[in-house]
Specification:
Number of helices: 12
Mean pLDDT: 91
Largest sheet: 6 strands, mixed
Radius of gyration: 23 Å
Helix content: 40-55%
Distance between the termini: 73 Å
Order of helices and strands: HEHEHEHEEHEHEHEHEHEHHEH
Low-confidence stretches: 18-24
Strand order of the largest sheet: 2-1-3-10-4-11
C-alpha cells in the first residue's frame, strides 16, 4: 500500500513539475503581456534620459507593448540600480545603465545594496557618447602637445573642471594625465553644467565636455577642442583628432550605455529584448536622431555586452587604484 501511495505521489509531483515548466514556457513565448518599465537612473531632460525615451518608444513598437520610462536620479545613478536589483525577475523591468555607474561607482561605493555582477543580467550594448577635451580660448594651447608643454612649464598650475569626484569627466582627465605624465589641479563641481560654465567663464582652463554639448560651443568659438575621447574620430567633429592620435597613447574614455535586467530573467526573454534593442537601433529615424545628439550606436549580443562590462570595470578599477582616487 505504501508503495502505491509513494508511486502516486511521485506521479503527481512529476505532473505538477511538467505543468509548471509548460506554464513558464508558455509565459516566455507570450512575452510581453503588459507594459514594461525602463528605469533611467538620471534626471529628466538630460542626454541619457533623451536616449532612453527614443529607444523606449521604438522598442515598444518592436515588442508590441508600451515601455514606460521612470526616472530615479541620485548618488551617481546607484539609487536607480538598487531599485531594479530588487525588482521581480519577470522581464518587466529594465535598466538603462552607463559605465559611470556599472564600471566606476562600485570602486568608490563599498556599501552598495546590490552586486553589479550577481544582481543584474546584461541585455545589450547601445553605444557610446564621446567627450571632447576643451580649453578656454585664452589658454595658449591649440593642440594636446601644446597643452602638455604648457603643463610642464607650470606643473600643477593648470586647472581642470569636472562634474565631481568619480564622475566620467574626472576619470577621463585622470586617465589623460596617466597617459601623458602631466599633472593638473582638479576643481570639482556639482554636475556637468556648472563645470562647463567654469570653463566658458575662464575660471578653469580645461575639461572634458560631452560632445553633443561641446560641438556648437566649439563651432561658435566659445571653446577650443584639443581632441576627442573615443577610439575613432567622432562623426560630429570629424576634423578633430582623437586624443590617442594627438599623443595620448591608447587613450579611450567614452560614456557608454546599455540595457540590464534583474538577475534571473529567463534567457529567452533577454534574447527577445536584445533583438528588439538591436532592431530599434537599426531604424534609420532612430540612428539619425541619436546621431545628431552625438551617440554612436553599436549594438551587440547580451554575451558580448557582459564581457565588455567586466573589462570596463577592470580598466577603471585599475586607474582608481593607481591614481589613489577616493571620494572626499
Amino acid at each position: 500500500m505504501r508503495r502505491v501511495v509513494r508511486a502516486c505521489l511521485s506521479i503527481i509531483a512529476t505532473v505538477l513539475s511538467v505543468t509548471a515548466a509548460a506554464s513558464a514556457a508558455a509565459k516566455e513565448e507570450a512575452y510581453p503581456e503588459r507594459p514594461i518599465r525602463m528605469m533611467i537612473p538620471w534626471a529628466v531632460g538630460g542626454s541619457t534620459d533623451m536616449l532612453g525615451r527614443v529607444l523606449a518608444e521604438r522598442m515598444g513598437r518592436e515588442l508590441g507593448t508600451s515601455i514606460v520610462v521612470e526616472n530615479k536620479p541620485g548618488a551617481t545613478g546607484t539609487i536607480g540600480y538598487a531599485q531594479v536589483a530588487r525588482a521581480p525577475a519577470d522581464g518587466y523591468t529594465m535598466l538603462l545603465g552607463t559605465n559611470s555607474t556599472f564600471a566606476i561607482a562600485p570602486h568608490f561605493y563599498r556599501d552598495l545594496s546590490y552586486d553589479i555582477v550577481k544582481d543584474f543580467v546584461p541585455v545589450g550594448m547601445i553605444g557610446a557618447n564621446q567627450q571632447v577635451l576643451c580649453v578656454h580660448p585664452k589658454v595658449p594651447a591649440t593642440t594636446l602637445e601644446e597643452l602638455i608643454k604648457l603643463s610642464e612649464k607650470q606643473p600643477g598650475q593648470l586647472t581642470y573642471a569636472s562634474s565631481g569626484v568619480g564622475g566620467s569627466s574626472h576619470l577621463a582627465t585622470e586617465l589623460l594625465m596617466e597617459a601623458t605624465g602631466i599633472e593638473m589641479l582638479h576643481v570639482p563641481y556639482r554636475g556637468g553644467a556648472p563645470a562647463l560654465q567654469a570653463i566658458l567663464g575662464g575660471q578653469t582652463n580645461v575639461g572634458f565636455v560631452d560632445i553633443s554639448i561641446a560641438e556648437p560651443l566649439i563651432r561658435s568659438g566659445q571653446l577650443r577642442a584639443l581632441g576627442t575621447s573615443g577610439k575613432n574620430r567622432a562623426p560630429l567633429l570629424p576634423n578633430v583628432p582623437t586624443l590617442a592620435e594627438a599623443g595620448a597613447k591608447d587613450f579611450e574614455s567614452s560614456t557608454t550605455f546599455g540595457l540590464f535586467m534583474p538577475a534571473g530573467v529567463p534567457p529567452k526573454v533577454v534574447e527577445r529584448v536584445n533583438r528588439a534593442l538591436n532592431a530599434a537601433m537599426k531604424d534609420p529615424e532612430v540612428s539619425k536622431k541619436l546621431g545628431l545628439m552625438g551617440y554612436e550606436l553599436t549594438g551587440d549580443s547580451a554575451g558580448s555586452y557582459a564581457e565588455y562590462a567586466k573589462a570596463e570595470s577592470d580598466k577603471w578599477g585599475k586607474l582608481i587604484s593607481v591614481r589613489n582616487i577616493a571620494l572626499p
